[in-house]
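Interim report to the steering committee. The following record documents the input for 39S ribosomal protein L18, mitochondrial (187 residues).
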Amino acid sequence: MSILFNTQRRYFAGYITKRITRVQSDIELTPEDVAKGQSGPNDFPPSQLENRNPRNLEQLSFEVKPLGWELDKTAKCFWNKVVLEKFRNRYEAKLIHHSGRVIIRASTDEDGVASQLNSLIDMEAVENLGQILARRCLEGGILYAFNGITPEQLQSPKTVAFLDGITKSGLSLREPLFIWPRRRRDL
């Protein structure tokens, strides 16, 4: 019984360290500032806001992360996860949303990538693949992702080179804590 409790405590300790219910900002808007808005031919009324980024709540840490269950084989406490897959003659990197959809994909056998590489499976190819995936993520508005590389895969120097390529390009492999929704008793 104590082993199960220690496992559960370790599982939650890695993901839930602080309960954040508010965001502080240096930029404060008064109701008059919001009411002014901008007057232009294509502007909508200032009292309405239109969200064009479907992952905006994740970027602002307002979207609740799916915590999954304690006995899940793989932890599901992420919004977006980076995965590296090795095939017989190529590598493929994916950014997977927590719903299971593949958001962004990059492979060493794409025409534009393969024409620039000497080999599709060497260290240089894997590092460039990490840079390509990170660039596509940043262009798509995704600034951070969960590192979905297993500890067994981290033993490989090619996987380490892939992760170095991602971090060199500016994609953070650590997601921020999410902000818990306020409850009635928090007031």
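The chain is about 30% helix and 10% strand. The committee is asked to note this result when reviewing the revised timeline.
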